[in-house]
Amino acid sequence: MTLYENMEQRDSIQFLCEEFRKHNHIDIEQSEKYGVKRGLRNADGTGVLAGLTLICDVVGYEMKDGQRTAIDGELYYRGIRLNDIVDNCVRENRFGFEETAWLLLFGNLPTKPQLEKFMETIAMARDLPAGFSEDMIQKAPSPNVMNKLARSILALYSYDDNPEDQSLENLMAQSIKLIAITPTIVVNAYQVKRWVYDKKSMYFHQNKREYSLAQNILRTMRPDKIFTEEEAKLLDLCLILHADHGGGNNSAFATRVLSSSGTDTYSALSAAVGSLKGPRHGGANIKVTEMMEYIKAGVSDWNDDGQIKDFLRRILNREEGDGSGLIYGMGHAVYTKSDPRAVILKRNAEQLAEARGLDKEFELLKRVERLAPEVFYEVKGDKKPICANVDFYSGFVYKMLRLPPELFTPLFAVARMPGWCAHRIEEILTGGRIMRPAYKALMTPRAYIPLDQR
Ligand code: COA
């Protein structure tokens, strides 16, 4: 479909836009005057409190004398440090994403039998409903896996016998189904994208019952279904790191806003996918990869700090990159000195980069991470600490796992599903009020002019 059928229509859209521009300028500087909490942020940079949660805590600064003081970031799932979850899984040499999903959903670590049963339940819920792939994924394919995922989640409503029931039992059943089925949808959607848009072969491998979610993703993605234990554990680690990020992150908040209206699970979670796709949110992971391609092409000596800084300066001034003025993968609403997820990913990337012959690229990535804050302060004159966020290194890790860029943000969605579901359940059971902030209206009342007098 093209939105413009002919040149005449294109001209008329231009005319409509000119008309729009004449009447729709808002001076954003006025926000302060009216006490607008832009970005739902208080004047001191902290987020506006929108609710209470038991699910996740993101700690990025300390308040001292009313000022935000930079500290190393910490992330807690149900009160347990992310680093402790990761370290224990590594020590016990086992997969941890399913355990993390249990922890986020139910609030406590599972016992061994509970975890085994949960993994079995997930394994049984992995398959798509009969006809779903043919009717919902293969028909009307999308070049973008995130859009296909959002549409598929919305479509699951029609396949659920009891979609509107908001009892805890039903919300749990829907959550487990969504956690289990999302990877299958994402891989199917990617395979169809390969076939239709890239003119390459597509593979529909069956999930394996006894495999963890990470193992099944690698199995169904690879033509030969072969992967190493090390690769699967690294993907599992990525999934753990992305599983939740508090109620205030854009997609969890979207889930909560929609859930507060009383809408169904599929409507709320397809909106979460739409939010995550944005380049300021989860979509940043693919944007980092694109940005690094610009930098690799535009900087002749990757060891020259001056050249790299110059390029970053031009990105911030919208003269290079995608024109957004953003250095992707840098900055965070809460973290100041460091994002613990980025620290863990960087450590793991380091171990693998040399073996994969990607050490030069990894060195360049580290340089960009080191130089970006300096350039940021120079250009913006803002002394606020800025650090690499989770998206800075995740694409590089996925690349080392031979996963394609089209799957970077969808994998974030696969991982975030337990977090979104936990926030939806919490919002429904404890929120109890529709979310409805206010907007200051800037216009003054005026008379309606009859058509023949304009
Ligand atoms: N590149 C360019 N400008 C940035 C920036 C970056 N990486 N990070 C922050 N800024 C800008 C913001 O746009 C904002 O500008 P404004 O005052 O003109 O509106 C200013 O610096 C202060 O922003 P801050 O309050 O620190 O961050 P935020 O909460 O508004 O935004 C992000 C947080 C994550 C959206 C922002 O850092 C960003 O866009 N980063 C790049 C995209 C990215 O990596 N997203 C993944 C997040 S996990």
Quick overview of this protein structure:
The chain has 454 residues and is mainly α. It has 18 helices and three strands.
Report on this structure.
With 454 residues, the protein is mainly α. It contains 18 helices and three strands. It has a three-stranded antiparallel beta sheet with strand order 1-2-3. Helix 7 runs antiparallel to helix 12. The mean pLDDT is 95. Bound molecules: coenzyme A.
Which key features would you list for this structure?
binds coenzyme A, 54% helix, globular, 5% strand, 454 residues, mainly alpha, 3-stranded antiparallel beta sheet
Q: How are the SSEs placed, and which strands pair?
A:
Blueprint: H1 7-23, H2 30-33, E1 56-64, E2 67-77, E3 80-81, H3 82-91, H4 97-106, H5 112-124, H6 132-138, H7 145-156, H8 168-196, H9 213-221, H10 229-241, H11 250-260, H12 265-277, H13 284-298, H14 305-316, H15 340-353, H16 359-380, H17 390-400, H18 408-431
Antiparallel strand pairs: 1-2, 2-3
Helix pairs in contact: 4-18, 5-8, 7-8, 7-12, 8-9, 8-18, 9-10, 10-17, 10-18, 11-12, 11-18, 12-18, 13-17, 14-16, 15-17
The protein binds coenzyme A.
Coenzyme A binds at residues 39, 280, 284, 316, 325-333, 384, 389-391.
